[in-house]
Write a structure and sequence with these properties.
By secondary structure, the chain is α+β, with helices and mostly antiparallel strands. It folds into two domains: 10-45; 48-184, Nucleoside Triphosphate Pyrophosphohydrolase (Alpha-Beta Complex), CATH 3.90.79. The protein has helices spanning 88-100, 153-161, 168-184; strands at 10-19, 23-31, 37-45, 48-53, 59-67, 72-76, 79-81, 102-113, 124-134, 146-152. The strands form three sheets. The chain has a four-stranded mixed sheet with strand order 7-4-9-8, sandwiched between helices. A three-stranded antiparallel sheet has the order 1-2-3, with no helix packed on it. Strands 6-5-10 form a three-stranded antiparallel sheet. A hairpin with a 3-residue loop joins β1 (10-19) and β2. The longest helix has 17 residues, at 168-184.
Length: 185
């Protein structure tokens, strides 16, 4: 994002229109490349992580969680926000254990991407977790309800390919880990 970019939109004003516990919303006034002004609404939230944990038998440890924003219960990889002063890898290990009761002993970073770039400041880092330790220490927030689910990796791939898995983090994790495993063969 460089000012010499012909598509750059310079922010000329920023007004906070909502302040929440986990995020806030700003209304930006931007100067468009053609000299006109426009308004943009931006959600500012901490960066997050997600991890696809796979055990030695080729099973993945996922969660089912209701997502009120879209009114659906989804099967997803464990994920969450990075706490202040926490590294992304530490957050991935923590979130995985808190939501599934398994702790990855090894993590491989897959990608960091802007998952809702049209209106959010957040980036998400995805990991592949192996060498799982079954600690059983599920520690959910007081208002968090998830159900751990264990299934074969091939079944996850089938759910992705059939369109039954719809969230980007789980789709990307599954496809990227599939590519890693194909390269090993």
């Amino acid at each position: 994002m460089k000012p010499d970019d012909p598509l750059f939109e310079n922010v000329t004003a920023r007004d906070r229109i909502f302040e929440g516990k986990f995020l806030h919303v700003d209304k930006l006034t931007v100067l468009l490349p053609d000299g006109r002004t426009a308004e943009r609404e931006v959600v500012a939230i901490r960066n997050s992580v997600a991890v696809l944990p796979m055990d030695a038998e080729g099973n993945v440890h996922l969660i089912r969680q209701h997502r009120p924003a879209i009114g659906r219960t989804l099967l997803e990889v464990p994920a969450g926000l990075i706490d202040p002063d926490e590294s992304p890898s530490d957050a991935a290990i923590r979130e995985c254990e808190e939501e599934t009761g398994v702790r990855p002993g090894a993590l491989r970073e897959l990608i960091t991407y802007a998952h809702v770039e049209g209106y959010s400041t957040a980036f998400m880092t995805l990991y592949y977790g192996t060498e799982l330790d079954r600690t059983g220490r599920i520690r959910l927030d007081a208002n968090e309800f998830v159900e751990p689910v264990k299934l074969p990796f091939d079944e996850l791939l089938s759910l992705v390919q059939s369109g039954q898995i719809i969230d980007s983090k789980t789709i990307l994790c599954a496809m990227m880990v599939r590519e890693l495993l194909l390269k090993k063969d």
